[in-house]
Each structure stands twice: as C-alpha cells, then as structure tokens.
C-alpha cells in the first residue's frame, strides 16, 4: 500500500502533458494486449478498447470479461494502475476547468472576441447600458474592463481585470478588433474635473494604441463637465456623453414642454415603443427627399444623416455614398422593411 501511495503521489505531481501521454499509451497498450491475450473474447482491438474504457472509468458493464489466467492477471494490473491513472487524469481535467472558471471570473484571461463592444469602468450606468444592448441584441459581444478583483457583472460578458490606461490590459480586451470602446466616468471620484481627467487618461491610451497599430478605434466617453471636451482634442474621441448636464437639460425640457420626457425616455430605450435605428442608404435614393418619402411609406421617419439634423431643410441635396441615416420606428418595422446595419 505504501508503494502505491508513493507511486500515485508522484503521478499527481507529474506535468499534465506527461499524464495525458501515459494515459493514452496505457489505454492503447491495454486494448492491444487484451486482443492478443484473448483473441476469442476480444476478436478486435476495438473490443479490447471497449473493455479497457469501461474498466478504467469504473463503469464495468460486465458484458465481456477475460476468461484466461493471463487475461485476468493483466486485468488485475489494470484495476490497480489503470483506474488510478485515469482517476488522476480526470482529476487534472476537473482542476483545469475549475482553474479556467476562476481565472475567467477574476478577469485574468484575454478575450478572443472580435467586432465586440468594450466597456471601461463598472457603474450602475454601465450595467444599464449593457442590459439595454443585450435586450436589443442578445448576441451582442461585450467585454468589460474594471479594476475589481472579480467580475461584478451578472450578464454574459467577458471580464478583464486591470487598469484600462495600460496597453497590456487594453490588448487583453482585444480593443484593436473592437467595434467600439465606451469609457464611463468613475462615480467613485467626487470631483468632476478629476473624474474627467481619469477618463482622458484612458481615452489617450486607446488613441495611442490605435496609432501604434494603425487601427481606427471608435471611442465614446462619458464626461461630467462640458468644459472638459477641449482637453480631449488630441485623443480623437468620436462621441461625448455629458452625464450630469444631460440630465439637467432633459429636466429643463420637461419643465418647459410637459410630457417631453416621455419622448426622450422612449427614444433612448429599447424596452418599449419606437426607437432610433441606423439604416444603410438605398443606392436608388438620390436625394434626401426621395429617401424621406420612401422611408415614410414604410412606416418610419427619417431623423438625420449622421449627426446632421437639418436634412429636412436640405431635401434636394444628394445623399453622400458614406451617409449614415438614422430613422425612428418600432423594432418590427426596422427588422422587416429595412436593411439592418
């Protein structure tokens, strides 16, 4: 017994590749040996493999078993060493799966996603934004970067733990292959200027990385103060969302125009009612007027071309080839009558 304990103790310490290799050799060797020792009982090597696998995995169907002294002797050897070896192998596999799950939860693994959405910073707003996106598209691929020791999110997203201003962390989130990077303001920092400064640091890191690798990374940032926008001039941020000031402006609009908050809430949420969607311009549309009427006939309203909301005053202008058209309609109309972008 002491010898067996020492033997299996050494086996457990052996590297995983060696255990897998030895296990394969034991199974293959045992299958061939049983076929050679008892050709009548095990007429093919596959029959020997069947018996070996049911033995070492302790299933033991009993549909076939050795009948000769030689076969039974070898079977006893396999009972002791083979089952123990496979037990160690299974234990190693379970341990690796457990370790993988642990590392994934702690954000230590690199994400292999492409054309995904990267979110930087965990806040209540981050969670709501993720839920909104997944509500609209359950197949959306999301990677979260934050400094917390374990993944704070219950949604189906990849987690990368670390400082988002470091290139190594951004590369672990595979930002070079991302559809966009959204940086949320740190709610733990009370001073708005300091919070925007941290956001600027992350945005600058993303921009520097994009230049090094000659990639165009679409960047969206949340800032606290509109006055901070000029500080981001060198970071080439594509979109700004002003958190506190935006809410104040919506409240002001609701105060002046009663009921307008319902419109804003509906247009910024996928949960109910009509929403804003992006569509591809039909090659047959020459002017905004033609696009406007054809979109209207399909049950939607043309809202803008990119960030330009004044197209209703330029209806006879030609639509640029790279135009991004935004419409207002319900989800069914969008998916059934327009080319989904």
UniProtKB/TrEMBL annotation:
Question: Where in this chain does the record put each Potassium channel domain?
Answer: 25-97
| RCK N-terminal domain span | 121-241
Question: Where on the tree of life does the source sit, at the highest rank?
Answer: Bacteria
Q: Does the keyword Transport apply?
A: yes
Provide the protein's localization: Cell membrane
Keywords assigned by UniProt?
A: Ion channel, Ion transport, Membrane, Transmembrane, Transmembrane helix, Transport
Put simply, this protein is called: Potassium channel protein
């Amino acid at each position: 017994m002491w010898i067996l304990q020492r033997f299996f103790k050494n086996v457990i310490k052996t590297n995983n590749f060696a255990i897998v290799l030895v296990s394969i050799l034991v199974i293959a060797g045992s299958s061939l040996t049983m076929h050679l020792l008892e050709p009548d009982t095990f007429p093919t090597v596959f029959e020997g493999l069947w018996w070996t696998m049911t033995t070492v995995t302790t299933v033991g169907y009993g549909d076939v078993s050795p009948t000769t002294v030689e076969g039974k002797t070898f079977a006893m050897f396999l009972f002791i060493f083979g089952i123990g070896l496979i037990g160690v192998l299974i234990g190693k596999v379970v341990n690796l799966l457990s370790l993988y799950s642990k590392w994934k939860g702690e954000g230590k693994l690199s994400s292999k996603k492409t054309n995904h959405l990267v979110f930087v910073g965990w806040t209540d707003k981050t969670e709501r934004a993720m839920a909104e996106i997944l509500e609209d598209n359950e197949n959306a691929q999301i990677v979260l970067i934050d400094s917390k020791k374990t993944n704070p999110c219950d949604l189906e997203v990849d987690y990368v733990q670390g400082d988002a201003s470091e290139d190594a962390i951004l590369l672990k989130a595979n930002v070079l292959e991302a559809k966009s990077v959204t940086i949320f303001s740190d709610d733990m920092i009370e001073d708005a200027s300091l919070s925007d400064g941290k956001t600027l640091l992350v945005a600058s890191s993303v921009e520097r990385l994009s230049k090094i690798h000659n990639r165009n990374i679409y960047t969206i940032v949340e800032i606290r103060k509109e006055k901070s926008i000029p500080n981001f001039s060198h970071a080439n941020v594509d979109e700004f969302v002003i958190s506190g000031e935006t809410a104040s402006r919506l409240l002001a609009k609701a105060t002046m125009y009663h009921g307008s908050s319902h419109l804003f809430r509906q247009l910024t949420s996928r949960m109910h009612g009509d929403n804003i969607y992006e569509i591809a311009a039909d090659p047959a549309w020459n002017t905004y007027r033609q696009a406007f009427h054809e979109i209207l006939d399909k049950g939607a309203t043309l809202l803008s071309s990119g960030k330009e909301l004044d197209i209703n005053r330029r209806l006879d202008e030609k639509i640029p080839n790279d135009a991004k058209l935004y419409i207002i309609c319900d989800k069914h109309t969008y998916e059934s009558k327009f080319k989904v972008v």
